């Protein structure tokens, strides 16, 4: 049974940093597409960052490029999202998602999400 569990969210002032973690069980993150999505109130869920299987290549939404970094620790089977220079617009529920490389039209597994609030 696959399980993704996010942690690390919370309240932070603008300009601050947070690191989100996504601990996976039931799958090997190194061979899955692993991504972070977020959803703000009243908005669509959007892709924030993803890390590709095996190569570890990454890409980011324009809105977070240069501020957020996705990474993974294969030994811990955990994916991270380091968020720096946080802005109020980053306020959202952040979700970890996983899919096999051969599944191209959807993410198969989702975590329950962790709330990030950026406010002074």
Describe the structure.
With 120 residues, the chain is mainly β. The protein contains no helices and 11 strands. It is globular. The mean pLDDT is 97.
Mean pLDDT: 97
Number of helices: 0
Measured distance between first and last alpha carbons: 40 Å
CA-based shape: globular
Summing up helix and strand content along with how strands pair, one would put the structural category as mainly beta
Total strand count, please?
A: 11
Rg calc: 13 Å
Taking the sheet with the most strands, its summary is: 7 strands, mixed
| Amount of beta strand | over 45%
Q: Which H/E pattern describes the elements?
A: EEEEEEEEEEE
Q: Unreliable segments (pLDDT under 50, ≥5 consecutive)? A: none
Helix content: under 10%
């Amino acid at each position: 049974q696959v399980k993704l569990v996010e942690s690390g969210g919370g309240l932070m002032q603008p300009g601050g940093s947070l690191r989100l973690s996504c601990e996976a069980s039931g799958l090997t993150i190194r061979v899955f597409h692993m991504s972070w999505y977020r959803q703000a109130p009243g908005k669509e869920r959007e892709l924030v960052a993803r890390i590709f299987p095996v190569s570890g290549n990454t890409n980011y939404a324009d809105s977070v490029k240069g501020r957020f970094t996705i990474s993974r620790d294969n030994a811990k089977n955990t994916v991270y999202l380091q968020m720096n220079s946080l802005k109020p617009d980053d306020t959202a529920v952040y979700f970890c998602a996983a899919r096999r490389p051969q599944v191209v039209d959807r993410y198969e597994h989702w975590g329950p999400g962790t709330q990030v609030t950026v406010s002074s």
